[in-house]
Amino acid sequence: MFECPECGKTYSRFRYFCRCGSVLLWKGKTLWNPEGEGVWRYSGMLPPVKERISMGEGWTPLVKNRDFVRKYPEMYYKFEGDNPTGSFKDRGTALVISHALGEGYGKVGVASTGNMGASVAAYSAYANISAEVFVPEDTPPQKITQIIAYGARVRKVKGTFSECFSKLWENRRKYYIAMTGVNPYYLEGEKTVAFEIFEEIGVPDTVVVPVGTGGLFTAVWKGFKELKQAGASKKLPVMVGVQAEGFSPIVRAWEEGLDRFPMPDPGRHTIASSIAVKEPFNGWTAIDAVNESKGFFCSVTDNQILRAMKKLAAEGIFAEPASAATLAAVEKEIGRTDERIVLLVTGHGLKQPAAYARINH
Amino acid sequence: MFECPECGKTYSRFRYFCRCGSVLLWKGKTLWNPEGEGVWRYSGMLPPVKERISMGEGWTPLVKNRDFVRKYPEMYYKFEGDNPTGSFKDRGTALVISHALGEGYGKVGVASTGNMGASVAAYSAYANISAEVFVPEDTPPQKITQIIAYGARVRKVKGTFSECFSKLWENRRKYYIAMTGVNPYYLEGEKTVAFEIFEEIGVPDTVVVPVGTGGLFTAVWKGFKELKQAGASKKLPVMVGVQAEGFSPIVRAWEEGLDRFPMPDPGRHTIASSIAVKEPFNGWTAIDAVNESKGFFCSVTDNQILRAMKKLAAEGIFAEPASAATLAAVEKEIGRTDERIVLLVTGHGLKQPAAYARINH
Predict the structure, then answer these.
(1) Burial of A155 (0-12, 13-18, 19+ CB in 10 A)
(2) ipTM
(3) What is the set of domains in chain A, with CATH numbers?
């Protein structure tokens, strides 16, 4: 069943949005019986699909912060760069492309800042489905190369993720739309990162997540809540979401109690390209998650992100800029703590190596 | 105990080479009791060390060839790109840097075509050991960026891997030398890829490996042999090694029965930069492995590699060129078969994306 988190309406059949315009979330029976590999390890917690494909997504390293005697004795990096296409998106894509394959779709479309596009391109290739990917024209070249390599068609769009989505949506009759926000299967795959963290160290005190559309943030919270509902865990983490200054509509709506997301000034730019999202599909569900978990949102500057990239890499974690925003946020907002903190490192540094050229060594 | 595969001499204490000039291999008690994560899952099969560090290396996807009804119904890709630094090297590095840390070394040195350098830089950073990396000046820029990001010092050398090693060896008193061929702990980590394949699908009929120094090839064979010695398995795979045309000293020595490795013509170049090695440290042990396993070596051209890169990516596997050499070899030398074949995809395509610009889509 698919439920609207805004108006509460439910749908038994798959669709992209609620009639009220909101995203939809899957709701169904859950059973905690992890077994096997990839996202299907958690099939008891996932919506049923007719076909299951996996390219070995998930079971990524949970690396303990090296400086264990210092400011953060219990801090971990969940390194999602170790997924097949180099980002956490592969978890969601495994679900979405499995669903598309089971339903007999031959063509998928997606708008992306690059990572989701590469992921959908790879899994579509594996499933023998053709893919079309709309990306902003200033997407890092490695990401575009990767998407093209998998055989997908790339459509470069002047503008941001939002303009890419508009182009895709104009053409929606042509495709199965395989993207987060629009397709509720996406978050179902992404929530498996919460299950893995739980299997490895139990429920952390705090989870820090980079926020673009708010999809991953919503999914992680949904995952921890469902673990509790299924009787597997007893507590819930505090959720902390991080946006890039200049692209922080969720932070601003949450702080200022707005009822719509404010537009950034035109021409704004951030090095954290994979979270540079103006109109966040899952913004309201992300705000719900922060409020329910008694967490917070904050934004960080490009300079803070660059310093955090350097620190992370000096501990052996080579992350794309959006991922390093989590460490920048911890240092800015959390300070010394004995709590058990997990930072989601969402993408590999090899996705955007040029960003490292801006660091002074 | 460390044993010379050439003259048979043994050493109880760690050292880089045998007095006869050959590499050394570790030999010791083995116990098959896999448990836990990273390379230490197989600690019963590994040499003892005083410290154990892991960044979550290993347990990489074994992805079944999509075209299962066609030419190769039982072909798998072992995708080593899903290691912390994007290549299989992390397995060996986990052992080597653990050993260095346990013995109290503060500085490591390595010569590398890029992947080993990035891996040693990352694990050294994690272990708080300083690292110096000698690379050929034409190493792909992503790899150099990555090494620098981890905080290691990069020394660019005019020439190939062999000239890099000469420079490192001149300075050997300054470092713990953390590289394959020289340091026997390296192969001990790398052999864990055989253990994982065995846990997932048993012993395959054939394993196909890209060959530069011959280290990984030697390690995979050692791993399967030790599984049999430990009583865990009953059979051994046929080993197939692939080099790039123009950099194929092992192929030529094996085919022509030479007693030394022939030098490539000066100025030769291959797109498969990570296996562009003139003087293969583990060449003789690799030749022993092919002969013992009744396998073979072959070489493939850059054009064959480029075609294989395109085919692999069209199945969702984005590999660096050296890795795609394995598929090129299967298509050239093996043809249609029902055998269970595993191809080692040693590095992520994001390590060398420029190579994909040379493919016609």
Answers:
(1) middle
(2) 0.92
(3) 62-87+187-358 (3.40.50.1100), 89-185 (3.40.50.1100)
